[in-house]
Amino acid sequence: MDVDGAAEDITEAAWVKLLNADYVDGGLVRAAYAEPRLRQLFPWVGMWELHFSRCAEIPFTWDVPYIAPRKGGGFRVEGPSRSESVGVADNAEAAVAIVADHLPPGCGPAFAGNRHELAAQETRG
User: Fold this and answer.
1) d(C-alpha 54, C-alpha 93), whole Å
2) pLDDT digit string (tens) for 24-56?
3) Of 85, 103, 107, 119, which is the most exposed, with the fewest CB atoms less than 10 Å away?
């Protein structure tokens, strides 16, 4: 299997796992999966937050905003760093749209490797 195909398979398997998980908001995961620009990224969950990585192995990239539940309902879109607030949304679809609108330039399908290997490949061009 080629590297791009491997990353695609790994990413799809991660999405399928999250689509069937009970430890993250299912509506949020379904909304994110429905957005092609996010579906091509590797999804992961930490602290009830839905994150998206440009690579499919740990350590993940940390350059895409993430979605966190908001106390009282709705969602916060933050990041890429924990000190950055991008916006708030009353529903999952709106939160997903905010993330999609704030993707880094050239954000494409997840890379089959970790963030260090991705950075090395991007440096080589």
Assistant:
1) 21
2) 999 999 999 999 999 999 999 999 999 999 999
3) 85
